[in-house]
Amino acid sequence: MKVPDRRETDRIDRGLYEPAYVQLAGILRRQIAAGVYRPGDQLPSEGQLCAQYGVSPMTVRRVINILAESGVVAAFQGRGTFVKPLDLGEATFRLEELKDRLANHDDTAVRLIEARIVTADEKVARKLAIAEGRRVVYIRRLLFQDEIPVMYHREYLVYDPRRPLVEAEFEVTTMEGLLKGRGSEGLQAGDLTIEAVVLREEEASLLRVEASSPAFCIEHIFYDFDAHPVSWGWFICRADRFKFTTRIGAGARR
Amino acid sequence: MKVPDRRETDRIDRGLYEPAYVQLAGILRRQIAAGVYRPGDQLPSEGQLCAQYGVSPMTVRRVINILAESGVVAAFQGRGTFVKPLDLGEATFRLEELKDRLANHDDTAVRLIEARIVTADEKVARKLAIAEGRRVVYIRRLLFQDEIPVMYHREYLVYDPRRPLVEAEFEVTTMEGLLKGRGSEGLQAGDLTIEAVVLREEEASLLRVEASSPAFCIEHIFYDFDAHPVSWGWFICRADRFKFTTRIGAGARR
DNA sequence: AAGTGGTCTAGACCACTAT
DNA sequence: TAGTGGTCTAGACCACTTT
Asked: ∠ CA(B99), CA(B103), CA(B108), 5° rounding?
């Protein structure tokens, strides 16, 4: 019944570079953040929003979709769209942050510290879905930032002479190359797991910190176009150099 | 020039419950995963996709948007849409996993172990943007799963008698309540940080593990509708009970 | 029955890139 | 200039919920 007052900024400016859907999403976000609509409140119906802001139904739908995806509202068919209470579960941490931190630093380097052919033990064989005893390539790398080792990478690669995967891996000498672009050589998807660990002797000495310092361990398995695993390994990241941040609620990104 | 062969499944079935845009996104995902389109390849233009699958431009656009958001393709205005190589930076870890693990367990409980009024020291005052020496509420909680302590929560709350925030906090006795729904009482947004830590004596004994075991530390600051911080705290999560997994590439979720 | 969100159409116009 | 993606319209029809 009560229509919230609309300030000057709560209008869509067609002369702007910013698309209408971005503007409207921002308007609704701001209103929710300011408490105009509170958790549990129902938003105006899509028809009302169309009339209020002078946009077409498709544009309003797009906005609602965006807000729903970011966890700010929830839309129920036949009932309406409602503001969601803050939910920690909506928080997402992006590995990209880690890359940013490294990439924005000019002085990053990848140093190959070992690469040799070994026979797969039971665990490696299981992870790579190959027969025990088969030959695999074992690679160890250290990542430096300003001459300081910050990340330690170990990886087992299925050895297939027909594929240039291993050769390509040897040429990885940049941060960028290690985190991206590996797909060009036949990788299609990957499973990642992140957990908290304490560094063992070997890891700690390589990373030049005390043993039993904290670290993130990011385990990865990469698959080729036949969905067969071809790479299994871990990134060990010094906790003092890496953390992840995010924002939830109406003020959140995207 | 060369048109990829279309299998029987690579058609949109209008009789299905699954919307056309979901079907088309799945088709393109599968083709990319199978290597029909490889990293760097250009997808058919939107017009071609419309004709090929008999859908309207808006539907194709929606599909492209979805694939672009999940990092599988990148669209460039004026140039085309291209398959992206696998990029670790695309990986996102969702805190919801943590909630799922706890919530799906029937036997979870939250136990309040301390709640008292203290005066804000320099750090608390800075984090909550209040004057040093002001009174704040200090709360400590333990979260149990099958009678085993798995998470330890400490929190400082701005004490404002006009607001029911503190009272509401005391009533939190379930997992669900702790992670959700706190927004009903005037919280609007939050900043979260996750890092790897080793447990200190006190934390370890409360969580009944050895000291210097690994753990996740999730720090949080929650804001009210005036964007003023009202809560600062941490969740300490035993690493042996929590890890996060995700999938990147053409086979990824959403 | 009325109101809600969910999908989809068949175009339009614009901005940008390549040639 | 031709081709590409990006935005947007003004409806349509459907599924669902509430009254």
From this structure: 115
